[in-house]
Amino acid sequence: MPFSRETLADYLAKSAQGDRNAFALLYQKSSGALFGMCVHLLGNRDEAQDALQEVYVQVWHHAGEYHADRGTPLTWMMSICRYRCLDVLRKRQREAGGDNMINSLQCERPGPMQNAMASIDRHRLNDCLRDLDEGYRTSIEMAYFRGLSHQQLAQAMGQPLGTAKSWLRRGLDTLRRCLSQ
Amino acid sequence: MKPDHYERGHALAAEYVIGTLQGKARRRFERWMMESPRLRRQVWYWERNFQPLNHAVEPVVPPPQAWNNIDRRLFGTPRQAAERVAPWRWAAGLAMVALLAVLVWTPYPTAPAPVVGYLGVVQDQQSQPLWLLDASQKSHELTLKALPTVPAPGPNQSYELWLLPTSGAPVSLALLPTGGAELRVTLSPDQLQDLLRSRHLAISIEPAGGSPTGQPTGPVVYQTRLVSL
């Protein structure tokens, strides 16, 4: 990845002090990753751009709240970004009248999870994801990368709602136990 | 009910991060997070651990108007991102001193009569030479010779020499000597290749010992595109 942790941290710290040039650099270095996530989750560049703008307004106003426990600066910004996009997805679903299935679910190219597992060698998460039962792993993937609700997960996996919730919960619990080993 | 139980907190935090905790439950959890340091740490735990997944999503360059809109919303004065995102390049444009360098080299190993070195001369505005750069393609060595005319960079400051690749961030090559001293630097194959490809060099003023971030932080006082002979 073309990101230097120290550099982003430096830009973020300067942004917190009101340095607009540092903020512009922060945007230049990170906006591709964040916009990519918005486009992926929302599937619509106009909505993705609106979300991206909200994210960076938040980043500017809250830059001073970043600290190392949040992960890298990119982790922190990406979290803000994902939560914003999830809010947009939920709002869209409410306006559409509920948890309707998403057509793009039928698209079964190699998913981001497969790509991630191929690209995050030596990371503990990689091993732990591989060890998960397929149902658990799939439920985590669909939730994280497609922003699905419990109801949508159940539909996508052809399982009762209770089963889908249970798989997700058990998958996450197993993942945490593995990560903490 | 507030999730006082550690395991329950983790379960909710995980579903908050991946997004399946929704609606009123999500808002309620956010209020609990504000009250509970432990719950916040549990959320951060999941955010950190899922971060590698974010790399799996292909980056997409946002359209220019995205930045303009952000700039306008925050500061009311949209400017071109390109003008603002590279202040050290901008500073270079205002450099007080021009760098004149002469390059003598061959970029192709198969070319006839290969030249094994190249030379650069850094001059100030009065065409006074400041540094001589002498690089050997064969030995991968870059010799930096400071002439007595190099002005002192100021207390607790250093001159830092940067290679500007054709793409990507500047690469620090060395802290430049002053006061007639000479320094010999061995370039990595990648650095040499980037240098021959881009021929761009810049010199910035940094804190003593060099930039603390690995990127130029101070004003760029000299910049040039090397000329091949």
UniProtKB/TrEMBL annotation, chain B:
One Pfam family, short name: RskA_C
CC per GO annotation: plasma membrane
Residues making up the signal peptide according to the UniProt record: none
Residue ranges the record marks as coiled coil: none
Gene Ontology annotations of biological process type: regulation of translation
A GO molecular-function descriptor: sigma factor antagonist activity
Keywords carried by this UniProt record: Membrane, Transmembrane, Transmembrane helix
Bilayer-spanning residue ranges: 88-108
Superkingdom to which the source organism belongs: Bacteria
Positions of the Anti-sigma K factor RskA C-terminal domain: 95-220
Record-given protein name: Anti-sigma K factor RskA C-terminal domain-containing protein
Natural source organism: Alcanivorax hongdengensis A-11-3
